[in-house]
Amino acid sequence: MRSLAFVTAVALLAGACGPSQQQEETVNGTLVQSKGQQELAALNDYNRAIGLKRAIHGSGKQCQRIDRSAFVQRYGTLDMWAVSCNNGRGFALFIGKDDTVQVRDCRGLAEIKLPRCPAWAENAKVTR
């Protein structure tokens, strides 16, 4: 597991650019537990992609550009996010309330009894 320091730093920088529309228990319809999770959920798509991509790279995996990202569900105490990358790979990111993150390839999650990624991430296509 890697720290979401990258995501938090991006969120703090993005937050300095304008007013925040955070609510106490939900942000954009997403239930959150920690400040880092709140900041990630509040980011626009562009800045969230930057933070998630850094978390993916920090785990040793490759993603040149994130084409799509979305909150998927709560899994225990973790927030599950999914991304599709332009290299045809899809990833699930499980983010803990202590702002640690575990990155998994979307293909094969069911075999290890983890929630599946949405079809758009599981079947990510190579894009330019």
TrEMBL record:
Name the UniProt key words of this record, in alphabetical order: Signal
Signal peptide positions (record): 1-22
PROSITE patterns per the UniProt record, alphabetical: PROKAR_LIPOPROTEIN (PS51257)
What is this protein identified as? Lipoprotein
Top-down, what is the taxonomic lineage of the species of origin? Answer: Bacteria, Pseudomonadati, Pseudomonadota, Alphaproteobacteria, Sphingomonadales
